[in-house]
Amino acid sequence: MKKYILLLLAAGIMSSCYDLEQYPHDKLNSGTFWQTEDHAHQAIIGVYAQMRQNDVFGTYFWQDGLGDIAYGMNEGTIEGRYTDREGIVANKWQKTYEGIVRANIVLQNIDRVNMSDGLKTRYKGEARFMRALYYFHLMDFYGGVPLYDETTVVSDEFMNMKKPRSTTEETRKFILDDLQAAIDVLPVKWENENYGRATRGAAVALRGKVKLYAKDYKGAAADFEEIVNDPEGRGYGYALYDSYADLFKPTGHKSSEMIFSIQNLSGIGTEYGMPFGLRLGSRSSYGSSWNTCIPTDILADMYENLDGTAFNWEDYIPGFTTDKAIQKETFLAVLESGVVTKYPEKKELIRQIYAQRDPRMEQSIITPYSQYFGCNGTIPKMMEFVLAPGTNENYGYIRNNRGWYDYLWRKFVPEGDMDGTLSNREHVPINFPLIRYADVLLMLAECYNEDSKQNEAVALINQIRQRPSTHMPALNSGPAHLKATTKEEVHQRLMHERAVELACEGHRFSDLRRWGLCEEMLNFTYDDLLGNDRYKRIFVERDYLWPIPAVEFERNVNLGKNNPGW
């Protein structure tokens, strides 16, 4: 692991910012590189490093904000005010293509390196896996895209890289071919010092996901079954981790549940993490952060009661959902000189309401009047989440950076200074899963449900519901409210479990789009916990795909047509 991280830090050798129309002034093109295995290792780590770009996977958690379970960051996109010149639209395209170019550079040069053919083959497998991952990310947002492989040498052809868009089907085939090539050569596991690099299991799971998005349920199921059942005894060893909360802390980094994750590190001189503190934390988190992405009460209200019944505020506080004055009265405290002088009368009821819910709720979200071990600046301090004007970390209260009265994330957010391992709110040393075993179980359950195997699907969902730290009642275990026998009932349960299990992991928007549910579920007016208007979510048919950035048409006259509606 140490060797891996040090090479991540050295990956600046590939870090020149360039796009497909600009010459990359990059050391990898010099005649002094591509000679030793260390050179090859630095180059492949540079391919991985591009994942951490904010517009690629570096703020992937924000994509839940494009759905209904989160809000914040690039709010114009969420509110339907974006164009084909929006920064996020152009940057995602360009930064993801840079990852593809980096993978192509490895494939173009690896045979020049003085090392064994076996090692060269593995490096090629890693490069093809990463290229497939980047192309899949582009396809998910833009549909078919121009396909550049290792036959395109950017340093020679940068002025003539003007391919037309390939179709979605052609793009998908390219991705699947890359994944097959990776599967054929990648190891099931790496030695400990290289933990985190792409494996056969990661490639098989990603291939299953690509097929699932194409509604090839039988093909996807075959891939997911390899991960879950390991029929050939390859020794994958994937399994659910007992503690849901610890999955998103350093203790869960090398758990059996992580199939492929972004490796993160912090510390003076080794700042190579993701901005969980800055973007998900509050002013009461390490370094005084911004909470630019927050969970919505739509997500919060999804978490069931401990007995598996659906949660409803009306069961506890009549009129809560229809009367904003009651919402305000329920939550609002009074401060004088920075200190609470009056808690809401229903404070104990509020805590009872949250304590009697699916445990994943308070493992993922900071709820009103709960405690969070945060920081006053960089000094660790226990904080209380009080809803009132004027809360401040100096007095031991959580302060929302934007003055909002909303839930806050606990998942991925650093606690204190993480025992001295955290030095920068933008580089939190918590690994971020792009593929984990619970996700694979739910995707396999979806395949089974589409193939009329409802019992098999429910059994997989129940594994997740009954993780030791979750321990929610199993579906079809007796009570009517746990019934899930029809295809539609099971699908509703899948939607629910994917939302609450994978919250803040960036899957929600892609899920709703591939299910064709966006017009139905992503047009709403949202207010905060006190009933104040927050925003209006707008989604129209054209939003199923983002536009190809306008600047790309200006650079490449051969691109063809933009996506429908743009």
**Mean of residue pLDDT values:** 94
| Total strands | 12
Global shape = globular
Which structural class do the helices and strands define?
mainly alpha
Number of discrete helical segments:
21
The CATH topology name of the domain at 2-198 reads: Serine Threonine Protein Phosphatase 5, Tetratricopeptide repeat
The strand order across the widest sheet is 1-3
Radius of gyration: 24 Å
Distance between the termini: 45 Å
Helix content: 25-40%
User: Describe the biggest sheet?
Assistant: 2 strands, antiparallel
What report would you give on this structure?
The chain is mainly alpha-helical. Among the domains are: 2-198, Serine Threonine Protein Phosphatase 5, Tetratricopeptide repeat (Alpha Horseshoe), CATH 1.25.40.390; 276-430, no CATH class. Helices cover 38% and strands 8% of the residues. It is built from 21 helices and twelve strands. The chain has helices spanning 2-9, 37-49, 54-58, 75-78, 87-109, 117-142, 154-157, 168-185, 200-213, 217-229, 276-280, 297-300, 324-331, 347-355, 360-364, 437-450, 454-465, 487-501, 508-514, 518-521, 550-555; strands spanning 70-71, 258-262, 294-295, 334-336, 339-342, 365-366, 371-376, 379-384, 408-409, 432-436, 524-527, 533-537. It has a two-stranded antiparallel sheet. A two-stranded antiparallel sheet has the order 2-10. A hairpin with a 2-residue loop joins β4 and β5 (339-342). The model is unreliable at 1-28 (pLDDT under 50).
